[in-house]
Amino acid sequence: MKTHTLYAAAILGLVSTGNLMATTIILGNAGSGTNTNIPDTFGDNVSASDAGRFEVTDGGTPNIGLTWDASGGTNANSWQFHAWGGSDYAAGGALQMDGSSTNSIFSITFTPEAGFGVVLNGFDFVGDTNNDTYQYRVDLVRTFDNNTVFTTTTAEWTTDTSQPQENAPSVTIDYTGALGEEYRLDLVRLNDDSSDAGSRVDIAIDNLSFGQTAIPEPTSTALVGLGAFAFMLRRRR
């Protein structure tokens, strides 16, 4: 009986274990749309690569919906596509938090379909060439109970005129949500020490990486095993 129990547990493990399916990286290159607002659903249900916009592996994230929002905080205007210095810099573009003055909150919400989960890997901040100092807090919030499951205060960084990207930090999140749970990534502007903060406060992100998980369909091996186990139980009776 003990052997049968162990055999059944192994087979059920094959059937019920979650499966990491795919990854999508959102790039900032807007093509001809530079300095225009990002659509609210940019990166929604991506299943194929799009040069300069999305890099997709293993089928992408077709079961994850995205919503971009810039309504929180003070003087939050919009997410925008920006060139940020040419084709050799920030993949030719970045996703700018336009008008992101102190206390602004720019958000990206990840909404999975039933039976799928969200994986948040991380992203890169992108500096400018104005020699300003910035500080952000990054929160990952589970929306159904408003619980913050990840948070970090980035160290202050000062953008460099000649190499702005070198000083801007990357944020590693590496969080896998439960199936069906929606998450919101909040980027909260904490500080800007520039004297003209009202006009020179924009900052951007690039290479936003996320993925999806799912309950895998039973493999043929698992199905055969379950059938054999059921037959064994029947024979013993």
Labels describing this entry:
237 residues; alpha+beta; Jelly Rolls; seven-stranded antiparallel β-sheet; 13 strands; 15% helix; globular; disordered N terminus
Protein described:
With 237 residues, the chain is α+β, with helices and mostly antiparallel strands. Strands 1, 2, 4, 5, 7, 11 and 13 form a 7-stranded antiparallel beta sheet that branches. It is globular, with a radius of gyration of 22 Å. The two termini are 12 Å apart. This is Ice-binding protein C-terminal domain-containing protein. Keywords: Signal.
The number of helical segments is 3
Radius of gyration equals: 22 Å
- Kindly report how far apart the N and C termini lie: 12 Å
Mean pLDDT: 77
- Using the coordinates above, name the CATH class: Mainly Beta
The percentage helix is 10-25%
The helix-strand sequence is: HEEEEEEEEEEHEEEH
Number of strands: 13
Let me know the largest β-sheet: 7 strands, antiparallel
CATH topology annotation: Jelly Rolls
Point out poorly predicted stretches. 1-18, 219-224
How many discrete structural domains?
1
Q: Architecture in CATH?
A: Sandwich
Shape: globular
Helix- and strand-based class?
alpha+beta
Strand residues, percent: 35-45%
Keywords: Signal
Protein name: Ice-binding protein C-terminal domain-containing protein
Organism: Rubritalea halochordaticola
Domain Ice-binding protein C-terminal: 214-236
